[in-house]
């Protein structure tokens, strides 16, 4: 009885490892010396230069079918990432320029608010109302906020 259980569990373990090896995918290619290489990722992350290898049948099939006049399909993932990085850099430059414009507008707005607060403060000195001291205090606070 123990031998039966051992055989069944050993068979299940071997079958599970075979299934996991084929599910993950095995890739093959020839290196610069002409030696066949096998891995779980394509060669240099370039699917166009790699073939899929079936562990059970020992057959290799190309991952990418070559297309005439299709240079983009032969780009490696690293080249695609570099292109994407360049696009992101361009977008960041545009955003930086927009942010500089917004900062300039904000600076002009702050300067105008400062001038207005200073004019209000000067005007409050000449007021002849009951709440003159409260207005002077309020305008001094506006000057402090807007002119610093």
Explain what you see.
- With 148 residues, the protein is of the alpha+beta class.
- The protein has 2 domains: 39 residues, no CATH class; 70 residues, no CATH class.
- The protein has a 4-stranded antiparallel sheet with strand order 2-1-3-4.
- Helix 2 packs antiparallel against helix 3.
- The longest helix has 49 residues.
- The radius of gyration is 37 Å and the shape is elongated.
- About 5% of the residues have low confidence.
- It comes from Snodgrassella communis.
- It holds the Pfam family DUF4124.
- Keywords: Signal.
- InterPro entries: DUF4124 (IPR025392).
- This is DUF4124 domain-containing protein.
Radius of gyration: 37 Å
**Largest sheet, strands/sense/barrel:** 4 strands, antiparallel
Low-confidence segments: 17-23
Shape: elongated
Helix content: 55-70%
Q: Count up the domains.
A: 2
Structural class: alpha+beta
| Count of extended strands | 4
- Amount of beta strand: 5-15%
| Total of helices | 3
Compressed to H and E, one letter per element, the order equals HEEEEHH
* Strand order, largest beta sheet: 2-1-3-4
Mean of the pLDDT scores? 78
How many angstroms separate the termini? 89 Å
Organism: Snodgrassella communis
Domain DUF4124: 17-68
Biased composition (Basic and acidic residues): 86-110
Protein name: DUF4124 domain-containing protein
